[in-house]
């Protein structure tokens, strides 16, 4: 998992997998397999797609299997960000049968969830491919899984917004209300920020947009503006700030939003509402 997708730190993968396995194995482990499968039985298996989509999360599936059987053979047939059709083999596995069964659900849960995010992201990306706009995710992620879900967004061709409250400033409506206005909020943010911290301001009117531009905001989030208002905002900004459209973005509306000329469109739905991609693990006993 390298190149344009970046690399998920192994510590994040290990922590997520260990927590999930502890939850699933509980206090006694896989009592079904212990009762039915001989301890030394070996098996081959494949992970295959049952629906069309985009793959993400292979490293987590592999880590779950290796956590149960360090000697498991895990051979990738496809990589993260690959598009698949039903029946496509994603990975081939060989190892201790009990171990594969113990890791199966955790491996598929991660792979299905992250592939679902990648698949939905790709649908949004494809819908705006005829424009300059880029699709970005938000902080509306599953607690504890943000880095993994944001990686899945990249697998689907999307961009990552800030990862947390500490890596960029986003001055939202409540900040503006408490500080007394857009100008004062931006002034305070600029006085506090280091030279590498970008400041973005959320606005919901064209008057606020003009105030944010005058205050020197580097990026402006246009909140819940219809396409006609977005086009006016693009004309008013005239390239003086990066413009991001957000709020209520759907697959039905995203193309019209992109055609307004904004630079980015952020969507919480691509992480918090993506249905899991249906993948299965099918086993056969080694001779």
Summarize the entry for a quick read.
This protein is an alpha/beta fold and 287 residues long. It is built from eleven helices and twelve strands.
Molecular shape: elongated
Largest sheet entry: 6 strands, parallel
CATH class of the largest domain: Alpha Beta
- β-strand amount: 15-25%
> Structural class of the secondary elements?
alpha/beta
Strand order of the largest sheet: 6-11-10-9-8-7
Give the radius of gyration: 23 Å
How far do the termini sit from each other?
A: 33 Å
Outline the fold blueprint.
Blueprint (H helix, E strand, L loop, with lengths): L9 H16 L5 H6 L5 E8 L3 E2 L3 H11 L4 E4 L6 E2 L4 E8 H31 L6 E3 L9 H10 L13 E3 L1 H7 L2 H11 L6 E5 L2 H10 L3 E5 L3 H11 L4 E5 L7 H5 L5 E3 L2 H4 L6 E7 L2
Parallel strand pairs: 6-11, 7-8, 8-9, 9-10, 10-11
Antiparallel strand pairs: 1-5, 1-12, 2-4, 3-5
Helix pairs in contact: 1-3, 1-4, 3-4, 4-5, 7-8, 8-9
